[in-house]
């Protein structure tokens, strides 16, 4: 097969790759979710939350280097997966060393995650796993969209070491999909930028989202008086679900929706459960995905998945 990547390069594969290196945790997470982890021989250090990732070679670089190019080359990979966060110079150096690299396009939406999951399945010969994963995601996101339709959206702020995520970011997409208004976009923030205490206090968000690397609201007078803090409406989400454009983002979205709109979500989820046949589940279905006082994760259902994706995959490799 031959497929053009984000650099415009035609990436050609003569047979299904058996040795794959992932250059970011999002690419590794996709490989795990579609059932292709056994093909992975190298991962970066931030993928160590994945089961048995510690048994794979660590290809992270030191200092300012994201990737140890010599290590990647030494693994003799059939394919290297390089998400958009990987510098193009790194991609070029690997290609100059004779390595086949597929560079992903930037991911800022849920649709982009569907796309990357499908593309990955095609590249590594796991179309059936990719099809099931995308169908499961669409099923859960469909329930969320049903739940939040017509609901009043609370003001929500994502806070991480004084930074926040505004327009054009994946985290903004998560907040919007879960039925919240992102405070950062309301004050004109785009991308990832610092946000002052004064702005936060003035906006007075109803909810504050944190991640496990910085799980506490600053201990300052202004923050202590925020509605979100006074009413104990802060949510700590595992960073691998909040910050990585990969399938497990579903857990961040569904749990946020469950907190923002509990009654609407329960009603929509009950409706989905009545009309959905369980044929596949996510590998981490029962994992706790939001950690706040008294709040556990929740189980998910999956969509009916046909064999069309698998048949198309077989045809692509002929």
UniProtKB/TrEMBL annotation:
Keyword Protein transport in the entry? The reply is no
- What does the UniProt keyword field contain? Signal
Compositional bias (Low complexity): 271-280
Which SUPFAM superfamilies does this entry report, sorted A to Z?
A: Helical backbone' metal receptor (SSF53807)
- Per the database record, which ranges form the Fe/B12 periplasmic-binding domain? 19-264
Which residues lie within the region annotated Disordered? 271-295
Q: Which domain of life is it from?
A: Archaea
**Alphabetical list of InterPro entries matching this protein:** ABC_Transporter_SBP (IPR050902), ABC_transptr_periplasmic_BD (IPR002491), Peripla_PGF_1 (IPR026469), Vit_B12_bind_prot (IPR054828)
User: For this chain's UniProt record, which GO biological process terms are given?
Assistant: cellular response to iron ion
Protein name, entry field: PGF-CTERM-anchored ABC transporter substrate-binding protein
Q: Which organism is it from?
A: Haladaptatus pallidirubidus
Its ancestry begins with: Archaea, Methanobacteriati, Methanobacteriota, Stenosarchaea group, Halobacteria
């Amino acid at each position: 097969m031959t497929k053009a990547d984000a650099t415009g390069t035609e990436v050609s594969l003569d047979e299904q790759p058996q040795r794959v290196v992932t250059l970011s945790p999002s690419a590794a997470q996709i490989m795990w979710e579609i059932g292709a982890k056994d093909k992975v021989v190298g991962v970066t250090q931030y993928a160590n939350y994945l089961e048995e990732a510690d048994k794979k070679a660590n290809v992270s670089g030191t200092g300012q280097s994201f990737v140890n190019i010599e290590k990647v080359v030494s693994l003799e990979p059939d394919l290297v997966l390089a998400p958009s966060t990987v510098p193009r110079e790194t991609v070029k150096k690997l290609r100059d060393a004779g390595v086949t690299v597929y560079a992903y396009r930037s991911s800022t939406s849920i649709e982009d995650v569907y796309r990357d999951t499908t593309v990955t399945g095609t590249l590594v010969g796991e179309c059936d796993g990719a099809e099931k994963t995308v169908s499961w995601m669409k099923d859960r996101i469909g329930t969320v969209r049903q739940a939040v339709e017509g609901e009043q959206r609370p003001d929500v702020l994502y806070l991480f070491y004084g930074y926040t995520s505004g327009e054009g970011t994946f985290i903004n997409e998560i907040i919007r999909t879960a039925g919240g208004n992102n405070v950062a976009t309301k004050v004109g923030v785009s991308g990832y930028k610092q946000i002052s205490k004064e702005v936060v206090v003035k906006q007075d968000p109803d909810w504050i989202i944190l991640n496990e690397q910085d799980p506490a609201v600053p201990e300052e007078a202004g923050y202590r008086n925020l509605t979100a803090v006074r009413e104990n409406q802060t949510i700590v989400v595992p960073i691998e679900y909040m910050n990585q454009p990969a399938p497990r983002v579903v857990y961040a979205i569904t749990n946020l929706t469950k907190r923002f709109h509990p009654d609407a979500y329960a009603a929509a989820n009950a409706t989905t459960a009545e009309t959905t046949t369980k044929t596949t589940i996510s590998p981490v279905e029962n994992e706790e995905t939001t950690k706040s006082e008294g709040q556990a994760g929740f189980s998910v259902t999956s969509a009916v998945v046909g064999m069309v994706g698998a048949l198309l995959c077989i045809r692509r490799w002929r």
